[in-house]
Amino acid sequence: MNRPRRTQTLAKRRVALADPALQLAMLDALDLPGGDFEDQLRHSGHEGLRPGPFRVLQLNLGKLCNMACLHCHVDAGPDRIAQNMSTETAEACMQAIERLQPQTVDLTGGAPELNPNFRRIVAHCHRSGVQVIDRCNLSVLLLAKNADLIPFLAEHQVEVVASLPHPRPRNTDAQRGDGAFNRSIEALRRLNAAGYGTGDPSCRLTLVHNPAGAFLPASQAALEQDYKRVLDRDHGVSFDRLIALTNMPISRFLEWLDTSGNLEPYMRRLVSEFNPATLEGLMCRDTISVGWDGRVYDCDFNQMLNMTSAIARPHIADLDLPVWSAHAIRTARHCFGCTAGAGSSCAGATT
Ligand code: SF4
Ligand code: SF4
User: Fold this and answer.
1) What is the pLDDT of residues 242-269, one digit of tens each?
2) Which of 99, 100, 122, 127 has its CA 20 to 30 A from that of 9?
3) Which atom of ligand 2 is nearest to the CA of 339?
């Protein structure tokens, strides 16, 4: 089967598609019946998308990552050293946490643990009583410099949301590179030994599934059962819950869709499976997304497409909630990735 594989970043290969404007133009140029997202919203009784109650502050600490998966919507990789959150911006984010009082701070990247401010932000949130999510690629926990990271995460009651595309080695390695599955299992064993994934709500371990090709995820509940059975039986590891994400047609997954001849069929599938019931739970409605340079976006996907939030000063140092609550969320064709089938957000299916 034709599947995504490990690669190098678009930036390192200096390909034209590294430019987000070109990614948006490529999607816009497709012949997609029913493919105007705003029209679909109107037909479902919505005049655009508006924020609901604010809940999550998602901080993207940078594009630096120790891996280079082919489906990556961030174009993250080991060469993205410059695109990393500075201490000054991290300070502005910590001040914003006090000002905005999110329920949850969601740390993502790249590999957020590689940012030198990661532990300070986690400790700050813990002191302030704010729940933290670490979006973790698992292999980063095995790096020698991170030998004490798992106890740190447990001490600060951080939820680990860990990517494991598939419970069997072949499919995971196809997306993340040879040996990625075995490294993930070793990291899961270490997390289990520290109390993660054993039913303790203060050490919650969530796994993230995404499909290994140009199709939508299967039922999240069915996938969770399969992962639990296979990982326990074959590897003796456990986790608390699983979320299933749809691959977004941007960045490196967009490149793979295009070069494998899957782009138009995939987009047609996303459009044809548009599900209005997903709209209520879209993450752009309860989440503020902050980039490594402090700019504010409606979600991590808009962030990667350089679509800053439609507010006067879209920077975390200037943001206040009344302004955010009143603004219109920016959408484009990639949004069909969030609204197809059971829906997809950073918290998994939305229906
Ligand atoms: S681990 Fe995550 S951030 Fe890193 S390259 Fe893979 S998908 Fe991208
Ligand atoms: S990509 Fe998804 S989360 Fe982002 S603005 Fe579009 S619908 Fe909302």
Assistant:
1) 999 999 999 999 999 999 999 999 999 9
2) 122
3) 7
